[in-house]
Amino acid sequence: MNTPQQTVGSAYFITEDSDKEESHTLSVLVDNEPGVLARVIGLIAGRGYNIDSLTVSEISHQKHISRITLVTIGTPHVIEQITHQLERLIPVHRVYDLTAGGPHIERELALVKVLGKGDARLEALRLAEAFKALVADASTEHFVFQITGRPTKIDQFISLMKPLGLVNVARTGIAAVSRGAEQI
Q1: Is 90 exceeded by the pLDDT of residue 183?
Q2: Is 60 exceeded by the pLDDT of residue 15?
Q3: Summary mean pLDDT of the chain
Q4: What CATH superfamily is the domain 104-178?
Q5: pLDDT band at 180 (very low <50, low <70, confident <90, very high)
Q6: 3-state secondary structure the chain
Q7: What pTM value is reported for the model?
């Protein structure tokens, strides 16, 4: 007799697959008024979910609409719950799961400060050029690099700068938009 884990057609395998956590980027269109961001964050944090990245910007001054782009990790069921609960908030106009919606573009900006002299300084400049990072500030003892791109690219750049004298990093959070003609 087979146990449920050994049975290929068992529902246990479906449950295991659907319980896999994944990162999702959500685009939330909201009224641009005081307290809206706090309500959105409170809804997510109040249910024990974490926000990995958060950016907010006004997208229509005339209509007083802002876009909140947030990245969170959860099972498909959790992401669906977050989406439905956000849609119920009064100042929320629309919630769009960019990850589930198909191809989309994500970018982030980071300022990376590196202290160093001699060979470490030259290596930092060489790597910055390879990553297409700009020198935003420099002295004889430091560089501040400005780098934009996918979060994984920025993570890789930061990890390479650590042994060369990395002392500070400031990141903007992810800005994202869907590909194609669809408008959100």
Answers
A1: no
A2: no
A3: 90
A4: ACT-like. Chain A, domain 2 (3.30.70.1150)
A5: confident
A6: CCCCCCCCCCHHHHHHHHCCCEEEEEEEEEECCCCHHHHHHHHHHHCCCCEEEEEEEEEECCCCEEEEEEEEEECHHHHHHHHHHHHHCCCEEEEEECCCCCCEEEEEEEEEEEECCHHHHHHHHHHHHHCCCEEEEECCCEEEEEEEECHHHHHHHHHHHHHHCEEEEEECCCEEEECCCCCC
A7: 0.81
